[in-house]
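Late entry, coenzyme A complex.
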Amino acid sequence: MCPMAHKQLTPQLFMARANLDDLPELQLPEGYVVRSYREGDGAAWERIVAAAFEREVQTGEFEKSMKQHKAFRPERVLFVLCGDVPVATASAWDSPGWGPQTGQLHMVGTKPEHRGKHLGYWVSVAALHQFGKEGRRDVMLSTDDFRLPAIKTYLQMGFEPVLVHENQPRRWRDVFAAIDQPGLSAKFAEILDGPVFKPRA
Ligand SMILES: CC(C)(COP(=O)(O)OP(=O)(O)OC[C@H]1O[C@@H](n2cnc3c(N)ncnc32)[C@H](O)[C@@H]1OP(=O)(O)O)[C@@H](O)C(=O)NCCC(=O)NCCS
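Prediction complete; structure with ligand written out below:
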């Protein structure tokens, strides 16, 4: 089946969590556990990413884009497992242009058949705990307007919009309407009416 086409607006939306205080303790639904990367998990990561992002993933993509990346450390790549099968992932990554004190929540995905249980939330919380262990100060991420379950998840985790372009106040208001939370436009009015942040290149 052809994956649904989504209009990708540019630049991507950014969000940030201003600190790593008050992180929830991990509370996975029954039957699920969290652990970090173990040698040989690359193929499982590729299967999750292919299914979650509905795109082709070449064998070896994990090796190339994650394991050989200078940000890679086994403890930074988190998985939720159902039994012994990895079904969701998130990574606690570096954030080029935002400084070493800022972590980047990266490559969050849940296999479609395991959705509806907030596994993306829990695996991302595990990544935030990793940032805490590393002594990071705050966390950012980039996402797309059409990734509504992801944006809902990030808002539940305490992330807030960060404007990086003049077209984004309107886009954020559209997103809040699309997730049926138009009140967030008022909650984040100061951000949406405020200046645009230019990360260092
Ligand atoms: C983002 C993702 C990991 C979340 O997976 P998950 O944790 O299983 O998410 P859930 O199915 O439990 O849904 C999370 C929330 O989104 C809501 N949601 C689900 N589908 C939705 C949709 N189409 N529109 C709006 N909200 C939606 C759920 O109702 C839930 O909200 P709630 O907490 O109020 O109940 C998963 O959707 C995914 O892999 N998406 C594709 C990859 C992606 O976009 N990754 C993020 C890149 S930035």
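The two ends are 38 Å apart (CA to CA). Will revisit in the morning.
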